[in-house]
Amino acid sequence: MDRTTVLSRLAAVCAVLAAVALVTGLWLGAQAQPVQLLRPAPASQASLFGDEARAQGPSGTRIGSPQDLIIRNQAVFLPETGADGLRYVDEPMLTELGLYPLQLKTVRLLSILTVLGLLALAAAFWLGGRWSRKVALRAAAPAPSERA
Amino acid sequence: MRYLFILPALLLASAVAAPVKYAVTDLDNVNVMTAENETDIENFTAITNKISGTVTFDAAAKMGSADLTVDGASIKTGVPARDSHMVSKDWFNFAANPVIRFKTTQVSWVSGDNYKVSGTLTMNGVTKPVSTTARVKLTPANDVTKGMKIPGDALAVSLKMNVLLSDYGVQHPAIKAGRVGNTLPISLKFIASQP
Question: Which of the residues A48, A52, A102 would you substitute to probe the B interface, choosing the one with the greatest number of B C-beta atoms within 10 Å?
Fold first, then answer.
């Protein structure tokens, strides 16, 4: 197999891998949902802080702001749902199970970087193949004295 | 004759409007400090329940003060590698300066359980003025507080404030490059009781 063919095939493989990375990123991202981490507490305990007047959601301490997370273990989800489909997750249980959920933000960034990197590699291999073909053609062409 | 009534009135007034000192109770499942940060790869929340200190509160006069300490070295973010970065001198240097201290200088009542609070925050060895609003609610000892093993009356405090990492000597290149957010929203929630 000559160099031109190898480089062309490598370019094709990289292009295919870029497409796979794109689809994988989109598939993973589609599984993300808005989640609020919470340390559940009885309503009586929440009332000590004056938190009893919450319009929606379970009582307890909110940990951080809502994030788009990918969580497969359904056991950590609390039954209540907030506005715009916000789900609540038991933060102490997440820690106990050793789970650190993947964020949609992370998936998107890594997916974009992977796709761009593979496309750049595919372009480099393709250009390398074109250059290699040009060199091979130039080498195969008869010398000017021979043409005469 | 009227002066006979003044002394008891003064004594009664002083008995009603008396500031009481409360100490932060050791309730790991209730007390919590969180600090959020946005980075280019993910947003994370740093958490600890190692809060200590005292709050002096006069429920009748609606006045008070607080001197609180958080153990910065106990803060966890869920990723051990990031936890070790945070305590290093590249970031908060909690290994050398673990104390985060919030001390009030002025507290004024706003409405209900809400108070305007001014004070100083010390972190990474740097002290800066801060101001925020806090919710302070005093609950006399009852079945709920006894069930939580709170000795005496329960003074529940919650507050939030935003600080800038750069104000506290955190000058990592990732902040200047915009890869790590410079704004740190901090939230503090705890129960204090009479020791």
Answer: A48
Which of A65, A95, A105 is opposite residue B36, by nearest beta carbon?
A: A65
More confident residue, B113 or A148: B113
10 Å CB burial of residue B62 (0-12, 13-18, 19+) is: middle
Q: Contact A39/B32, CB-based, under 8 Å?
A: yes
Domain boundaries of chain A, sorted by first residue = 3-27+106-147, 33-102
pTM of the model: 0.85
Q: Smallest CA–CA separation between A73 and chain B, in Å?
A: 17
Beta strands A77-81; A87-90: pairing state: antiparallel
Extract the tokens encoding B32.
């919590």
Nearest-angstrom CA–CA distance, B13 and B10: 5
Residue A108 to chain B, least CA–CA distance (Å):
9
For the four alpha carbons of B20, B21, B24 and B26, in that order, the dihedral sign comes to negative
Give the fold, CATH level 3, of B42-193: Lipocalin (2.40.128)
The interface predicted TM-score of the complex, written ipTM, equals 0.84
Q: Does B32 lie at the interface with A, CB-CB under 8 angstroms? A: yes
Domain limits of chain B? 42-193
Residue type, B110: V
Percent of chain B with pLDDT over 70: 91
Q: Residue with structure tokens 């038991």?
A: A90
Reference A67, options B92, B110, B35, B38; nearest CA is: B38
